[in-house]
Amino acid sequence: EPERAIEIAAHQQRIEHRCRRGLGRREDAEVDAAQDDERQRQCRHCADETPEQLAPAAAFELFTRGIARWWPFRGHSCFGDEAADVVFEPRIGGAVTEVARDGARMAWGTLTEWSPPDGFAMRWFPGLDDSEATTLSVRFAAVAGGTAVSVFHDGWEARGAAAAAKRDQYDGGWPATLAAFCSAADAGMAA
Q: In the chain, fewer beta carbons within 10 Å around the N or the C end?
């Protein structure tokens, strides 16, 4: 649908602008630490989309139990084209694990919050040691015509010297990932 594609592209441009402006970069030597912290706080919010006509409980289920039906594994997973699923152990402390077609498993993270249908949060370290975990929170809120899905991704300091580059990589990836989710939601693929 051309109108939906334009809407998603415009949204991705807004996200890119919001997430890239000043994150971790000193554009002006006179900017004080409080302003810099505020910019960081505002830009943690990486992405938002609103799937049409999908209740929060159904959106939560599609995002978690139905993730294999929409997640763009190519380029956004540990096993790439060989990825088959991502399994959430639905509890605080539960593992989030990518599963390959041959049964191999790779940790994506550990749940720190599990609150269906409102959202979940996790320590996010796909294919890495958990000492490099960032923080990922996904929220689902009812809005007119569907559910607003918001992704907050921060804690980049855990990535050390690679923090800025990894943050930029994810800032570019979340909009496309959420666009895939919205396409699945719009197509009626809810669990």
A: N
For residue 19, pLDDT over 60 is answered with: no
Number of alpha carbons in the 13 Å side-chain half-sphere of residue 56: 16
Residues 6+ apart with CB under 8 A from 10: none
User: Alpha-carbon distance 97 to 85, whole Å?
Assistant: 8
Looking at per-residue confidence, does 67 or 23 come out higher? 67
Residue 117: is the preceding peptide bond cis (ω within 30°)? yes
pLDDT tens sequence across 47-59: 566 666 789 999 9
Question: What pTM was estimated for this model as a whole?
Answer: 0.76
What are the residues facing 135 on neighbouring strands?
Answer: 123, 154
* Amino acid in position 122: M
CA 116 from centre of chain: 17
71 in Cβ contact with 77 (< 8 Å):
yes
